[in-house]
Amino acid sequence: MAGRTTACARDAVLVALLGSIAAAWGSWRPSFWYDELATLSVARRSRVDLDRVLDNVDVVHGLYYVGMRYWFAVFGASEFSARVPSILAVGAAAGGVVVLGCMLADRRLGVLAGVVFLLLPRVTWAAVEARSYAPSAAVAVWLTVLLLVACESGRLRWWLLYAAALALSVVLFLYTIALVPAHLITLAWRGDLRRRGPAWAAAVVAGSAAASPLVLEAFAQAGQTSWIPPLDRNLPRIVWEYQWFVGAPWFAAAFTVLVVAGTVAAVRRRTPVRRHGVLAVAVPWIVLPMAMLVAYSLVATPVYLDRYLTFTTPAVALVGGAAVAAVAVRTWATVGVTGALVLLTVPSFVAQRSAWSDPSGMDFSTVNHDVAGRLEPGDCVLFGGAAWNPASQRLVITAGPETFAGTRDPGLGRTAAAEGWLWDENLPFQTVAARLSTCDVVWFFADAERTTEQRIYHTSNQWWTLPPHRFESTPEYAGLVQAGFRIDERRQYNVSQAIRFVR
């Protein structure tokens, strides 16, 4: 038994290391997008300013922001360094999946499940997202490992660790609270409810009580999710494809076929009962959180987004690993099935690591890096609005404030740090026009040129309509010309442009 445990631990470490290395590939390429810049905006503030914004918004991300604040202080906030915590979390989650598979079945299933986890498009996406989605998957895995260990041993220390891990997971990502009813069903399915139910309930009460201040504050800030669209007829596709296989419909189709084939094969071969432990853990983990978010969105207010269920990907991987183990009994078949999944995930993996892979092709980092070294001390910078941008083009500064060191910012209003907001206030051009008399050079960051209307569909079930846009037809251009400026240089990017004006 000790030898098997050691071997499983070795497998878990190896899969975690290889998974992190693979997940890191190309992670520095995608431009920061809106949500990631919220991380940078908040996590680079002082503790006083960080606490102020959490009192107003985003308390559900508070622990993640605090952790990232110290991470940035040591490693900086480049595209790569900002995503390394997510990359490491993917590795930690993959290792946990291997441990779970080994505990529930055997080493082979554990390794297969860990590999499937690393191939899931939602996981490869989370690895290059400077948000708390990948960490939420990691804490969900290890919370479930603690549940199984506590059930096997019955010792108080494991239940105390389970309670602490539950509190940590909820504070890190609120929706992981849905694992509580999922674990309850797992206990019942495994026949542990009568024997371990009281201890589990006490641990849940303790963990929930520890996390309750954040939960109450999160409900007080519930209005910040008002932008989430209601569910509609697109829900089946969102659940089937976007939720776990974002950007990879062929992978979704192959995975579905694989699970069906694995189920048939397991029934025909009368797979040992111990293999069914995978289903006892994975099925409630998959179904309950999704059902809870969907039901709440239908009867109360929309809270369901496909990426919010990233913490269920380990359960999907367990089912996938069990399916591969059932279908591919021989080594050559295992290699073939796994290889096919690798090939099917490559297109989405590569696409996720392209320069403008994030929603709407946001290009904040691209613009920031391009003007670095061309901005001169004393240059004035202005930021316009954009049809695709929920805030303003001022987020180009957030992608790298050092790029704008020494420039003047006459359009800056109240600061986010002082007000407890996510974003600095961008004053309307009419207000700042009179302040341009001392500027010899003005850099204006604007929406890109569009000759026709464009419509973009997001996996969050939102349509963004981008109307035609010509900068020379805007009041900002007319105001700058009236103030004596002319265009000296102009650069178009993906959805943005930078225009240099001189007198």
UniProtKB/TrEMBL annotation:
Keywords for the protein's UniProt record, in alphabetical order: Cell membrane, Glycosyltransferase, Membrane, Transferase, Transmembrane, Transmembrane helix
Membrane topology recorded in Swiss-Prot or TrEMBL: Multi-pass membrane protein
Compartments where located: Cell membrane
Enzyme Commission number(s): 2.4.-.-
Keyword Transferase among record annotations: yes
Cross-referenced Pfam families: PMT_2
Primary localization: membrane
PANTHER family xrefs: MANNOSYLTRANSFERASE YKCB-RELATED, UNDECAPRENYL PHOSPHATE-ALPHA-4-AMINO-4-DEOXY-L-ARABINOSE ARABINOSYL TRANSFERASE
Transmembrane segments: 12-28, 80-102, 109-127, 133-151, 158-185, 242-266, 278-299
Protein's name according to its UniProt entry: Glycosyltransferase family 39 protein
Enzyme class: transferase
Lineage: Bacteria, Bacillati, Actinomycetota, Actinomycetes, Mycobacteriales
Single Gene Ontology MF annotation: glycosyltransferase activity
Organism: Rhodococcus indonesiensis
Glycosyltransferase RgtA/B/C/D-like domain boundaries: 69-200
InterPro entries: LipidA_mod_glycosyltrf_83, RgtA/B/C-like
